[in-house]
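Question (not urgent): is this output format expected?
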Amino acid sequence: LAVLNPWGGDPDQPFPDGPGQPGEGAHPPVNYHAYAACTRGGFYRNPGAVREKTVLLLLRRDLKTALKVLRALKAEGRHVLVSLKESGSHQVAALLDDARRLVLFRQICAEADGALSSTPDLLPLYRGAGCREARFLPTPYPVDAPPWDFSRPLAERRGLFLGTREFQVPSRNHLAALLAVRDFGVPVTVVNPDGRRGRRKLEALGFPENRLRIVEGRLPYPDYLRLVSGHRIVFQMDRSAVPGQVAG
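Got this back:
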């Protein structure tokens, strides 16, 4: 399977060996890259680099370009599925809150061979917009590949990991989740990508002393997996329908 994100930010990346090794490659085999990795296909930004017969075309804000790419791929005899790259309910609402983009989205759905949805919440949207077939297939993770086994014995796991970020997205319920775990009586770990402003918000929650561990900034993906696997529980109250949330 080729996953095509036309002129997106991620570089072309083949996955001839499946998920590969942790820490190698431009992007780990997760989220939409995972569809390519589990089929030993490739993730592309350049449509001209695609060699696979079946293509998953990711839809972003520039739907006019996406429609042109779809028609070009179909003219080459390829089987083309589509999927919204940002699939959170708030993200989809913002994308389609424009009459011209809504018309383009309907055209794309009508001309594609189908839709592959990373979340079940979007199936009615694809079908209502004209997709002849729409299937829910969760983004896979390489849990059966020994190099990606970051698990620890239960006796070595401690506390709770907060599986969301982003105070500013209401459907994440990040604040509500933090308030809910404050009185659980266990150590809580949370990632803060928002610097000083995020830390001030976290400190304002009034956690008991030494009960909240704040991990600042972003970690390399293998280090992030090691961090998550050191906990007994991953907790969230997310309602945004984004498939990549940690507890999901």
